[in-house]
Amino acid sequence: MIKFAREIKYRLFSYLESLRYRGKDNRETFQKIYQNRLWGDSAQQFYSGPGSHDVKVVDPFVNSVLTFLKSLPNAPIVIDLGCGDFNVGSKLLPACQLYIACDVVPELIEHNKVKFANNSIDFRCVDIVKDELPKGEVVIIRQVLQHLSNADIALVLPKLAAFKYVIITEHIPVGNFVPNLDKPSGLGIRMHNGLKKDSGVVITEPPFHFKAANVQTLQTTICEDQSQLVTWLFKI
Ligand SMILES: C[S@@+](CC[C@H](N)C(=O)[O-])C[C@H]1O[C@@H](n2cnc3c(N)ncnc32)[C@H](O)[C@@H]1O
Predict the structure, then answer these.
(1) Do residues 146 and 179 make contact, with C-beta atoms less than 8 angstroms apart?
(2) Distance from Cα 133 to the centre of ligand 1, integer Å
(3) Which ligand 1 atom minimizes the distance to the CA of 185?
(4) Per residue in 61-80, pLDDT tens?
(5) Which of these, 147, 139, 30, 131, lies nearest to 76 by C-alpha position?
(6) Whether the CB of 88 sits within 6 Å of ligand 1
(7) Which residue is closest in CA terms to ligand 1's atom 26?
(8) Alpha-carbon distance values, 73 to 43, 64, 128 (Å)
């Protein structure tokens, strides 16, 4: 009975979120989110949210990824899918030969090109769901899949087979939960979709069954609300 009520509530919140983005593709959806500053209050014109700025979550991620990148025999070409305001990506540059930072929001990409102009960064407007991905050795997808519907995630994942290493960060509940409950692409994530600690994206679980030669948890940060940010490293 409780499970049934939770399911109904989840579907209701998903439906309400889908109304917000009705008729919009991912570009328009995320453009609106930035235009209306829905990732949070900030004086910045483009702000990707506290998860991209809070040093308590950003620094441990950056340190673990830098350690991994520096462990590779040569500085790699890194592809960042959904680079956002680039506060996080900018800190990884010292370990990269070239950093190709992609996002679906064209104005954000133009803004980043001016703000972070540097020979070792290439900013590109790419819809990771619809477009071909740039080529490189390492791909980073940090707190992006959590905003996408299962149908959109399923279109992204096969493209990751082209990389040697895949680094994925997701905001998920702590403890037992049913992974990958669906939601429309947009602002909300599966944990906050009306039911706190409800679900989260785990790509190795159904319906995705993402396969890799090796998977390890690179880094975990427990948040104040007992949720967690988990970064996995997949060797393809
Ligand atoms: C929460 S932000 C995370 C930004 C950055 N990865 C970080 O960790 O700071 C999610 C970003 O994913 C981008 N995004 C969402 N859907 C996308 C798509 N289909 N293709 C490319 N970028 C997308 C959004 O525009 C937004 O900038």
Answers:
(1) no
(2) 14
(3) 16
(4) 999 999 999 999 999 999 99
(5) 139
(6) yes
(7) 84
(8) 41, 17, 28
Q: How far is the CA of 2 from the centre of ligand 1 (A)?
A: 34
**How many angstroms separate the CA atoms of 111 and 114, rounded?**
5
Residue 114 has pLDDT above 70, yes or no: yes
- Number of Cβ within 10 Å of residue 192's Cβ equals 17
Q: If you take atom 10 of ligand 1, which residue's CA is the nearest one?
A: 144
Residue 102 pairs in a beta bridge with: 81, 124
- CB neighbourhood size of 20 (10 A): 15
Quick one: tokens of 163? 């990389």
Which residue, among 95, 115, 222, has the nearest Cα to 167 in the 3D structure? 95
Q: Ligand 1: does its nearest atom lie under 6 Å from the Cβ of 134?
A: no
Is 230 near ligand 1, meaning CB less than 6 Å away? no
Structural domains of the chain, with CATH: 2-235 (3.40.50.150)
Q: Which of 30, 143, 155, 231 to mutate for ligand 1's pocket (most ligand atoms within 8 Å of CB)?
A: 30
Are 138 and 164 in contact, with CB atoms under 8 Å apart?
yes
User: Tokens 């990409």 — which residue?
Assistant: 109
Q: Which amino acid is at 87?
A: N
Strand, coil or helix: 94: helix
pLDDT grade, residue 103 (50/70/90)?
A: very high
Alpha helices by DSSP H, 106-149: 106-115
Identify the residue whose C-alpha is closest to ligand 1 atom 14: 82
Average pLDDT, integer, range 212-232 = 93
